[in-house]
Amino acid sequence: GGGAPLNQSLMDEALDHLTLGAEHLSGAIQGCKTPHTESSGTGSNLMNLMAESIPVFPDALQIRSRFCFDDAGGANSGSLIVSQAKTLQSFYTVGEKPQNYVARPGESFLLVIIRATHLGHKGDGTNYRLQIPREGAFTLHYTGETYSPISSPGPTNRGESYSGGTLDRRESISGYLFFEVPEDIDLSHAYIEASIGRSRPVWSLAGEG
C-alpha cells in the first residue's frame, strides 16, 4: 500500500548512511596505514636492536685471552692470543722495494695482532716443532659478513705481519693480520675466528678501535 514508498525512501536513506559510513571507515583505515607502517618499522628496529644486543658468538674469548692447543700428534702445546685491533687508512712495507697500501673509498684496513707461542714438548717423540695457523686460517666476522686477511705483506711501517708457520720450543712470534673492512666498522660487533685442527676459537674485538 501507501507505506511502500516510505519504506523505500527509508531504505535508500539507510543505504546512503551505510555508504557514507563505509567511506568514513575506509578513510579511517587509509589514515591508519602510515602510523601502522611506522609502528611496524619501530618493531623491526626493536628487533634489530635486540638482535644486536645478542652476541653472535656468546662463548667468544675476550681480546688478549689465551687459547691453548696441542698439535695434531699431541706432542707439542701452543697458545694463540688476539692482543690488539685498530683501523687505519694506509700503511707501507719497508725494505728494498717499499709498497704503499691505501684503503679504497668507504673502506679501512683493520690490523689485528696475533701472538703465537710454543709452550712446550711432551711425550717421548723427537718432534719439537709446533705448527701454528697460517694467516689464511683466520676469519673476521662482522654483521653477517666474513672477511679473509690479505696475503702477508711482510714487514711494514706498522710492524711485522703475521704469517704463521712453525715454532721451536719456547719460541714466540707476533704480527699483524690485515683485513679490508668497511670504513665505519664497529668493533663491538666484530669477531676473529681461528681454525686450529678441529678447534674454532673465536675472540671478540669489543673494546678495541
Number of helices: 1
Question: How confident overall, as mean pLDDT?
Answer: 83
**What is the terminal separation in angstroms?**
91 Å
The level of helicity is 10-25%
Short synopsis of the structure:
The chain has 209 residues and is α+β, with helices and mostly antiparallel strands. It is built from one helix and 13 strands. The chain has one helix at residues 3-53; strands spanning 61-62, 66-70, 76-88, 90-92, 100-102, 107-121, 130-132, 138-142, 145-147, 165-167, 172-182, 190-194, 202-204.
Tell me about this structure.
By secondary structure, the protein is α+β, with helices and mostly antiparallel strands. It is about 25% helix and about 35% strand. Strand 4 and strand 5 form a beta hairpin. The longest helix is centred in the first third of the chain and has 51 residues. The termini are far apart.
Structure keywords:
single chain; 209 residues; five-stranded mixed beta sheet; 1 helix
Write the layout of secondary structure elements.
Elements: H1 3-53, E1 61-62, E2 66-70, E3 76-88, E4 90-92, E5 100-102, E6 107-121, E7 130-132, E8 138-142, E9 145-147, E10 165-167, E11 172-182, E12 190-194, E13 202-204
Parallel strand pairs: 1-13
Antiparallel strand pairs: 2-3, 3-6, 4-5, 6-11, 7-10, 8-9, 8-12, 12-13
